[in-house]
Amino acid sequence: MAIRVLLVDDQPLLRTGFRMILEAEGDLAVVGEAGDGLQALDQVRALQPDVVLMDIRMPRMDGVEATRQITGPGRDGPAKVLVLTTFDLDEYVVEALRAGASGFLLKDAPADELVQAIRVVAGGEAMLAPSVTRRLLDKYADHLPSGEEPVPDTLHTLTDREVEVLKLVARGLSNAEIAADLFVSETTVKTHVGHVLTKLGLRDRVQAAVYAYESGLVRPGAQ
């Protein structure tokens, strides 16, 4: 079955461009469009898309609040949100990730990256580009813990190996890269990642990365 996509952006020209790119793919179907967050909520309820391609800055309701209402805590709908941001990285992207977005993509990303990102998010994974993630977290280093704060009690529920995996996830490494780094199989890494998400009550790898920084486990700029 085709992946059902809802386009949310206040610029009609951009929506048209995205539609042309996505409809050229046999496994993607654009089921609707919205020009602001309020319209997006209505469209999500009516159309039940698999992935919402969400702009951040829009009139009436921005992408952060719309994301929160679509995929935030307590929500159990099928829609995943892929946030669109400018090259300079909107200051609201961190909040969108906390609200439940499954990742973010630059608006000037190549067409093949856009298509792949939608497929990744629809498959239940997170779109966590290492270079962009590091820039984003470094940009907001002043708003994140310094590492001197007490470690959250929830972190103590993880095994030593799970903590190692969480640190590598926070650096933006894929399962294959983590497996190579730790000399284990990808299946083992997937199991560890699953345990981390379950124990910490997190939705996906994006929220795991944000948690790692907010808890002080990983510091912005650290390798």
TrEMBL record:
Residues recorded as bearing 4-aspartylphosphate in the entry: 55
InterPro entries in alphabetical order: CheY-like_superfamily (IPR011006), NreC/VraR/RcsB-like_REC (IPR058245), Sig_transdc_resp-reg_C-effctor (IPR016032), Sig_transdc_resp-reg_receiver (IPR001789), Tscrpt_reg_LuxR_C (IPR000792), WalR-like (IPR039420)
Domain (Response regulatory) ranges: 4-122
Residue stretches making up the HTH luxR-type domain: 151-216
Keywords attached to this entry: DNA-binding, Phosphoprotein, Transcription, Transcription regulation
UniProt keyword Cell inner membrane present: no
Protein name: Response regulator transcription factor
